[in-house]
Amino acid sequence: MHLNNKDNELFYKMWSKLLGYVNENYNFVLEINRLEDLREISPANIVKMRSKLWEHKESIGEYVEKNADTLTKREIAILKSCESNSIIGTFAKTSV
Question: What is the pTM of this model?
Answer without folding.
Answer: 0.74
